[in-house]
Automatic annotation (TrEMBL), chain A:
Keywords: Hydrolase
Keyword Transmembrane included in the entry's annotation: no
Source species: Streptomonospora alba
GO annotation terms (biological process): xyloglucan metabolic process
Protein name: Glycosyl hydrolase
UniProtKB/TrEMBL annotation, chain B:
Signal peptide stretch: none
Gene3D superfamilies in alphabetical order: 3.10.20.30
InterPro entries membership: Beta-grasp_dom_sf, Mopterin_synth/thiamin_S_b, Sulfur_Carrier/Prot_Modifier, ThiS/MoaD-like
Species per Swiss-Prot/TrEMBL record: Streptomonospora alba
One Pfam family here: ThiS
Name this polypeptide is given: Thiamine biosynthesis protein ThiS
């Protein structure tokens, strides 16, 4: 068995192939997305791997020539850009597609969702070669109040089929945005309601606003439980529409960007603490990962194998993931260009790659 | 009238490998009137030139203009020696026989 890790960086797309133990890795890149090589230097902010087809999608943004989506049907061996612009706002909408931040795959074959900047959700029915704006969310009356965070105004979490821990429904979906917070639909995207009760918004005057939060990442546990890493605050919820409960106690800080759940064990997950909203560095100047095995009731450092020297790279929203294997591997990349992997059974981090450009996103697959 | 669009190497693959594209256009004309002249020469707007370029090479247009038809920030388009933003943007007159040169601007780090 081998494993493929796809790494989106500020300057290009890299891959790493790991052996069965996931301790030895071969890194390749930057991949040639286009024949003229300009896209090889593009910022790759979103990567998705279709669990059915193994098609890899890469959302890349060239500072000169704009954003687009490339795909590979041979695990990164070759890359293609759709002949027609894959993501574009309709002519009657006064907005320009700036960046894909997140890809997620629906239950129906070929269904892909893209969370993008400016804050919008797009849907594809052909595996990511063409997308259509989800009008119900774009036309939401709250949209004028969704302000950009430091990274821009974007949807960066899309969870198709789920609005609560109990079961899935193809007409349901949860998204998270910065800023704006968590929104949910139960009617296939026609209407959306905020689901932020209990989530803080330290940058707003209200104590408990209905919406406007800056929810950096929402993840689903194997039992359907929701977890959120907020712009100050870490939360869990069985039913986001009813509210969220803080699980930040025991962490060195409650700020961070990513949250990764165990694909098979309920209540187990990882966060990557950051000092604060004004200091985007690891706490105490050391790379920190914290793991919970009881749904956030307690946390313990999971740092075995990580650098012990002072370290200043942090983990961004899609900068951590799991490969979902029976003995799952967990992965994260940092803004200082390091990528690490740990298997659930091994528990010790191995360095996959070093000295890459800023790592923006990672996605992994057992191949 | 006709104009020539000159492409940088980095964009030539989006135009089938061509470094220059000759474009024939109908000169701009106010409703009911004769085609206007620019220094005695017929002209079209830069928008019309890029629209025709997009019709021939849609994959090229998205590198130059965004999904709302606006010039990308770090792409410069010169009409002869004038950068179009200093003249009239996409409404810049492009005289018959002119060269329209597309160049990536200074960006990145």
């Amino acid at each position: 068995m081998t494993y493929l890790l796809v790494i989106g960086t500020r300057k290009g797309l890299f891959t790493a192939t790991g052996d069965d133990e996931r301790r030895t890795w071969r890194v390749r890149g930057p991949h040639r997305l286009d024949s003229e090589d300009y896209a090889n230097m593009a910022g790759v902010y979103a990567v998705g791997i279709d669990p059915r087809t193994r098609r890899i999608l890469a959302g890349a943004e060239s500072s000169h020539f704009g954003p687009s989506v490339w795909y590979s049907d041979d695990l990164g061996g070759s890359w293609h850009e759709p002949e027609r612009t894959p993501i574009a706002f309709p002519e009657d909408v006064d907005a320009s597609f700036a960046r894909a931040w997140h890809f997620a795959f629906g239950d129906e074959p070929g269904t892909v969702y893209a969370g993008v900047e400016p804050t919008a959700l797009f849907r594809s029915g052909d595996g990511g070669e063409s997308f259509e704006l989800v009008r119900g969310l774009w036309d939401h009356p709250h949209r004028g109040d969704w302000w950009p965070g430091a990274g821009g105004a974007a949807i960066h979490t899309v969870i198709p089929g789920r609005v609560g821990a109990e079961g899935t429904d193809p007409r349901s979906m949860t998204v998270a945005m910065s800023t704006g917070g968590v929104y949910q639909t139960r009617d296939g995207g026609a209407s959306w309601k905020p689901a932020n009760r209990g989530i803080s918004a330290v940058f707003l005057p209200e104590d408990d606003p209905e919406y406007g939060q800056c929810v950096h990442k929402v993840a689903i546990g194997s039992d359907g439980e929701f977890y959120a890493q907020n712009h100050h605050g870490v939360y869990r919820s069985t039913d986001p529409a009813a509210g969220w409960t803080s699980i930040a106690e025991g962490l060195p800080t409650d700020f961070g960007f990513s949250y990764v759940t165990h694909p098979h064990v309920p209540g187990t997950g990882y966060v990557f603490p950051v000092v604060s909203q004004v200091c985007h560095l690891p706490p105490d100047g050391h790379l920190a990962v914290y793991r919970t095995e009881d749904a956030g009731a307690s946390w313990h450092p999971a740092v075995k194998g990580l650098p012990e020297d002072p370290y200043y790279g942090i983990v961004l929203r899609d900068g951590a993931c799991t490969d979902g294997a029976a003995d799952p591997g967990f992965y994260f990349g940092t803004r200082t260009g390091d990528v690490f992997c740990a298997t659930d059974s091994g528990g010790e981090w191995t360095r996959v790659a070093a000295h890459l450009p800023d790592v923006l996103c990672v996605r992994a697959l057992e191949v | 009238m006709s104009v020539t669009v000159l492409l940088p190497q980095v964009l030539q693959s989006d135009a089938g490998g061509a470094s220059r594209v000759d474009i024939a256009l109908v000169a701009a004309a106010p409703a009911g009137g004769p085609p206007p002249a620019e220094g005695g020469r017929e002209h079209a707007t830069l928008r019309a030139v890029l629209d025709e370029l997009a019709r021939r090479h849609p994959g090229l247009d998205r590198r130059i203009r965004d999904d709302q038809g606006r010039l990308r920030r770090y792409v410069n388009v010169f009409v002869d020696s004038d950068e179009c933003r200093a003249v009239g943007g996409l409404d810049t007159p492009v005289p018959d026989g002119a060269e329209v040169r597309v160049l990536p601007s200074v960006a990145g780090g």
